[in-house]
Amino acid sequence: MFCTQCGKEIKKEISFCTNCGFKFDYEVKTKTKKVNKPKTKGRIDLRSIKFLENPILNFIILLFVIAAALPALPIIVPLALFYFIFTKLFKRKK
């Protein structure tokens, strides 16, 4: 941070310039540590769960995705094969 009067570099925590003595109008805020308290008792706060860092939750999500995708596999696999064969046969040369 720089003084608005003399341009000398000053620390953010002080309320006046050590070079020219100009007093700043802002209030010095003290740093407080935030404490995360649960908002409700007995319930899981879903925002606090880190999905990618929880291996058990990742496994459960993977099982649900596989279970949901199984009925669509007879449609998805032939379409994917057709797409890859089609793109290999009709590949554009630059």
Q: What's the helix count?
A: 2
User: Major beta sheet, specifics?
Assistant: none
Q: Which structural class should the secondary elements be placed in?
A: mainly alpha
Q: Please provide the count of β strands.
A: 0
Radius of gyration: 30 Å
Q: What oligomeric state is this?
A: single chain
Strand proportion:
under 5%
| Structural shape | elongated
The whole-number mean of residue pLDDT values reads: 76
What share of the residues lie within helices?
25-40%
End-to-end separation: 55 Å
Low-pLDDT segments, ≥5 res: none
What does this structure look like?
The protein is mainly alpha-helical and 94 residues long. Among the domains are: 1-27, no CATH class; 54-89. The chain has helices spanning 55-69, 73-89.
Describe what is shown at a glance.
The chain has helices spanning 55-69, 73-89. Among the domains are: 1-27, no CATH class; 54-89.
Keywords:
94 residues; mainly alpha; 0% strand; elongated
Write the layout of secondary structure elements.
Blueprint: H1 55-69, H2 73-89
